[in-house]
Amino acid sequence: MAKKLWGGRFKKKVDRDFFEFQKSIQYDHKLAGYDIVHSLIHTLALGNAGILKPKEKTKLMESLNKIKNEIIADKFKYNKNSEDIHTDIQNKVEKKIGKLALKLHTLRSRNDQIVFDEKSYCYDECEKIEKLLEGLLKSIAFLKNKYKAFSIVGYTHTQRAQKIYFKDYLEAFYCMLGRDEKRLSNFMNNLEIHIGAGALLRNIKKEDYNKAIKAHLEGEGLIKPSKNTIDDVSDRDFIIEFLSILSIMQMHLSRLSEDFILYSTQEFGFMELPEEFCTGSSLMPHKKNPDFLELVRGYTGRIYGNLISILTTMKGLPLTYNRDMQLDKEPLFSSVEILKDEITIMSKFIKGVKLNETAIKEALKDKNLYSVDRAKELVLKGMSFRQAHDEIGKELRGK
Which of the residues 281, 334, 384, 389 is marked catalytic? Predict the structure, then answer.
């Protein structure tokens, strides 16, 4: 086992099976870059508080920045035997500068580090997803423009309803995803990343952290000293909110997928899906299966499940931090990676969709699609809509 950040009051070694069960390095290594930022700011705060001498502060900052550069260059390798990413970085600093590294964790807690790391991760990934979503909206706009003058059959209750423009049909999905984009933007605007909460109480003055933040970020304003330290270390609302937004977005992608799957069947025949995003059958040579769309639809269960798992974990936890909260990371990472992949592929997929104009024009010959127009004509001639509704209904049923 690698060195741990705790253990002085224990006489016995940690059970090996339990250690493997409880460690989180196998997934929280994704947060390494953010944890370095926390350490850099904390080191500056320790210097401001007079706990670190100027030379000690400089030496710690240099070692942390070396690790930061390794992460940026994608050369960082975490130790799989470490308990978590916080411990791993501490041990790496110790390897570089020796016992001075033991001062790095002075008066701070992993409780504070992890919520800082996760908030930073959510902010960055939200920004990435928003940019990907912009690309998807452009792809939808491309398809709208391609068929801007073309009409299709509109449905309610999966029954033929009225003739509509295809561009208006696509605009509905554009509006859905546009709302998702606004939700993502609002999430980023409202997110505050706090630092200095300790385990549940501030151990270094707020002013010392304020100076450290300004020195490190040059007044960027996103990171702030803790307001209520008890709330800060126990808060996972931001993850729940982020996953809620991703769940709504996933629902929109799933609805789009379901429509396209349906309209591409032989029974409808209105759409031709791009082959490069479909697969064949190992038995039936003729098959062209809409696997990408089916997987998007299928992943919806996992995305919803990730949200529900964290809601369920948090529902009965006493203040402040509890180890249950370690289990928030995998659902978060899972939803983020799935959505990023789906949006990236969907942006390419949409551009390759083609309408079967012959089949659609044939379907548009159905006189039922124009019943409202005909009723409107009767209304304009002075008939009440109720009477016009009955007249057209009788005519369409053949009486």
Answer: 281
